């Protein structure tokens, strides 16, 4: 037998550490090449790690919740003696673009590297799926004492932070899934020995979401809650501080009548070209932004301090700020400028769904050129958003409300909203910022300009 070590890989563009969320195996469990053994959270995303060899788990290097440096041994495995075979897990794995230059094991054909671990065997031969010693198929998460509770990774992390055993939580989500509200309802504070490490939040309004009757309530004696600053929240905080104190922010506002755009939203819902696609105000606002960028390309730029250059981007990777249980993330739609309205609708839907499931990848959050943050969904009129690092402008979309408005010389009830544009005053002057914001408002006031100005 030989002992092989699997080290914490770099799963995203030079990150130096990651938090271990969940272990799916324990010492003594058999594992196979490609089997997911744990889930980790970096400053950018939650990622499942597959082990790149067969064997039996000898030791778990770090407990759940630990912050581990890239390159540290997280699990060791007893394998069959393979003298001279290279340890493919000995070095951090960066991205799918890297080539695996290490010599391969004598009896195994070349593999394609993926984000973490290794990809499928490149071979024309087909063989039956292998099974582990306990009869599970490759990629399974090892033996368990009973059915594993259904919960998404952010909910599992919340339960771990609150010290809640998911096995005893009563689920209220669809298909027996445990929600954040279920975990909060089951949280217990043992005064003097531990603290709750996440701020209790109100459960989302759900008509059919029962509360576990037998779950004890959080003690009213707790006067403070301390939340560890990790993962996405830590990275976001550092980025926002850096942005706020590096780029001189200026914010401008425009309030206007968006009634015609709201009518167009309803018309498009029955349009055959948009069949099966989600049509909402954000879709047309995003399209209006792309039209305005085309008319004012200097807004789509970045300030390169090291080179003392302004970098003009001839493409738009449109970022959409998304509030998730793991914190604020800003995935972006690559080359949004080249997409038709149906394509943009599909991209927005996929982006939001992926973010809500906690499956946004690091690559999806890199390379953004312009960001939209929709604070209106919370009933907020507007805000002064902070720039996403590496970008020159960000648009905040306020709530759309029925208000008295002068229309064709008469005061009438109209749908009205406010947009706020924050921009980097080093490369965007007042004229450019004002013209860009006015163009967005003009397109949304008269949405036929989506065609005439495209």
Summarize the structure.
The protein has 8 helices and 23 strands. By secondary structure, it is an alpha+beta fold.
Q: What does this molecule look like?
A:
The strands form 7 sheets. Strands 13, 16, 19, 20, 21, 22 and 23 form a 7-stranded mixed sheet that branches. With 454 residues, this protein is an alpha+beta fold. The longest helix has 16 residues, at 341-356. Helix 5 (281-295) crosses helix 7 (430-445). It has helices spanning 153-162, 180-186, 231-244, 259-269, 281-295, 341-356, 430-445, 449-452, and strands at residues 2-7, 17-23, 30-31, 36-41, 46-50, 55-60, 67-69, 73-79, 111-113, 118-121, 150-151, 177-178, 249-257, 301-304, 309-312, 318-320, 322-324, 327-329, 332-333, 370-374, 393-397, 401-407, 410-424. The protein is built from 8 helices and 23 strands.
